[in-house]
Amino acid sequence: MTTTTGFQRARSTDAKLQREAAILDAARALGLANGIRRVTLTDIAEAVGMHKSALLRYFETREQIFLRLTAASWREWSPAVCETLEGLDDRSPASVARVIASSLTSRPLFCDLLAQTPLNLERNVSVEGVRTFKLTSIEEFGRIVEVLTRVVPVSEDDAADFMAAAVALAGALYQIATPGPELEELYRSDPRLMHSVLDLEPRLTRMLAAMLRGFAAPAAPAAP
Asked: How far apart are CA 109 and CA 33, in angstroms?
């Protein structure tokens, strides 16, 4: 852990950007190691060798820091999953669901952020900060929806509903799948609680595949 001794306030624009990047990197590492909920502003400040009051010159709140990380995760995930989807030879619902589930579960911090964003991260940030984040996520979400409609025979509305469910489920199921060592030990020690031990990627894949099969299935003819 870096100590707070020797900290110097960033003076130039480049130095300020470097300091912001260091703060975001520290928050990312702490969030991945400990879970977003457990990371405090003090933890982040200590990790980069700053006093908490100095960190507040760069970010208003811990929520603003993690919301910035969420936007960055959307920008990283969207082109990656789109490229993989467009390169698929097998474009069956099962194959597409597998790609999306794998792309999400291989990004545990993103899954955690997806759950925390509507619960906490948008609640203690300026209106302009939320606006910036929303515009980023909407743009990246729309990019995935557009690719999905080319890969699977579904309408734009159905693709949007499917992807909204995919990211919501990834966030929620991630929380269930990572209860912490003490609770996991409890669940595994009692057969009555074993249903609480969740293997995230297979479960998410099955759920998404079933949903996508429903969206892609031909509509039944109307009754005479």
From this structure: 9
